[in-house]
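Hi there,

I know you've been waiting on this one. I reran it after we fixed the sequence typo, so this is the corrected version. Both the input and the resulting structure follow.
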Amino acid sequence: MKLVKKIFVVMMIVSLAACKSDDDGAAQFLLTIDNLVGNHDITLFESLEEDTFIINNVPVVSTITTIGDTFQVTLKLNADQTYLLAGQFRITETTIVGNDTLIDTEILVLNETGTFTINANNLTITLTDGLGGDSQTWDVALFNETQMNLTFQETGNLENEGTFVYNEEIRFIRQ
């Protein structure tokens, strides 16, 4: 019986040692132009904006939550670092100020072209609109062979002595 226990212990040690480095040789999917190129469908859009206004020396907080659904939008990223963002989806925007709530729903139609750059070290993608030249830099929260999740955050001051914090997340799945 003791021999069986020793053999069992040796087998367990050998199997644990063999499993230890299973992922050591796996290639990581890096953020590169070649790996980005392709069509990516939007699967999630959410944003949250919190504004603090000063009215008669009293802070008033406004919260705007936007949630998208019914996605028919594709982001096409090309090898020459141009992009096309086209399609439509519905957003529901909920604004809360104090005890008041306003809910608004609309269909967004997108047809935007421009260029993009990446920073693989910082895991960011910058999209520059081809019409107005406006650019926005997104943090890459997840990137693999099938998925890409982008987040954006901005904070600042409002014109009337207030402040804002804006967060946005967009998730994509590769076609």
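Quick highlight: The chain has two helices and eight strands.

Best,
R. S.
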